[in-house]
TrEMBL record:
SUPFAM superfamilies the record matches: Clavaminate synthase-like
PANTHER family for this protein: FI07970P-RELATED (PTHR10209:SF881), OXIDOREDUCTASE, 2OG-FE II OXYGENASE FAMILY PROTEIN (PTHR10209)
Domain Fe2OG dioxygenase, first and last residues per copy: 172-272
Superkingdom: Bacteria
Gene source species: Acidisoma silvae
Name under which the protein is recorded: Isopenicillin N synthase family oxygenase
């Protein structure tokens, strides 16, 4: 059915270092060989996981005029609503046939970094739907805990301190993205739901609703379906983690075909703190090998990638 491994994360929460290292080795192999993996025993409660889909259904059912009052164009911090065909993940393809809503790390309006106008340090745009904010933040917080667990596995596999990423991911740029794809023709050459791309950050945690569409490009160029598996999330590493590991971990192109039925998914993009410096880990350099990428802050790198994705950022409109 799939070449994407299913990894039981329960061992990463063990008090036994050998058990944690065993899971980390499996995780690292997936990052080197496929770049994608499913996780089970992830620690996110069923009611929280179901709640985020209920929130997505409610939001996207709102009139377009209501959703546009929350437009991402109103936020310089990558938060808010993206309308149908509002982004193009594959610069060579037509605009993506989807709508989306982005929620960032929740900060109060009087937070010093918000007041200072620091990059990706803005307030979220919340719809006027009773209980919606609390429902969404419960899922965001659960994903924060999960991504830190996964990062401990990465660190163990890479031979660095197990808590290396902890202070680089505690106030992250991390974006929770609700996605809605209308039904269309799910076939080669048809309009695309989401164009071929790699993700920008460290790791993505994706929840799907059971409607097919996600495909992953294997290292030999063959496209694999990534089917929904109950009780799991599908995860993939992104380009920032590839930079940190000097291509020891390689991010993998993927896409979403136009689904035959209406499709919803929820992605949590775990990017690092804005001022975290992404630079090659010493353990990922062979003797005499030079880093393949210059050091860059996470905020600067993400800004470059987002500008290439959104027309309104290219034009300043």
């Amino acid at each position: 059915m799939t070449d994407i491994p299913i990894i039981d994360l329960s061992g990463l929460r063990s008090s036994d270092l050998d058990e944690r290292r065993a899971v980390a080795a499996v995780l690292g192999a997936a990052c080197r060989q496929v770049g994608f993996f499913y996780v089970c025993n992830h620690g996110i409660a069923d009611d929280v996981a179901k709640g985020i889909f209920a929130a997505a259904y409610t939001l996207f059912a709102q009139p377009d005029a209501v959703k546009e009052t929350l437009s991402i164009k109103r936020s310089p911090h990558n938060r808010g609503y993206v309308g149908m065909a509002g982004e193009r993940l594959d610069a060579k393809a037509s605009p993506d046939q989807k709508e989306a809503f982005n929620i960032g790390f929740e900060l109060p309006a009087d937070d010093p970094e918000v007041l200072a106008g620091k990059p990706f340090r803005g307030i979220n745009l919340w719809p006027d739907i009773p209980g919606w904010r609390d429902q969404v933040l419960a899922y965001y917080d659960a994903c924060m805990t999960l991504q830190l667990t996964i990062h401990r596995g990465f660190a163990l596999d890479l031979g660095i301190a197990e808590d290396f990423f902890a202070d680089k991911m505690d106030r992250p740029i991390a974006t929770l993205r609700l996605l809605h794809y209308p039904a269309g023709e799910a076939q080669e050459g048809a309009e695309i739901g989401a164009g071929q791309h790699t993700d920008y950050g460290n790791v993505t945690i994706l929840a799907t609703d059971g409607v097919a569409g996600l495909q992953v490009q294997r290292r030999d160029g063959v496209w694999l379906d990534a089917p929904h598996i109950d009780g799991t999330f599908v995860c993939n590493i992104g380009d920032c983690l590839m930079r940190w590991t000097n291509d020891v971990y390689v991010s993998t192109p993927h896409r979403v075909l136009r689904p035959k039925a209406e499709r919803y998914s929820v992605a949590f993009f775990a990017d690092a703190n804005p001022d975290a410096v992404v630079e090659t880990l010493p353990t990922c350099l062979a003797p005499g090998e030079a880093p393949r990428y210059p050091a860059i802050t996470c905020a600067d790198y993400l800004r470059q990638r987002l500008t290439a994705t959104y027309d309104h950022l290219k034009t300043g409109s």
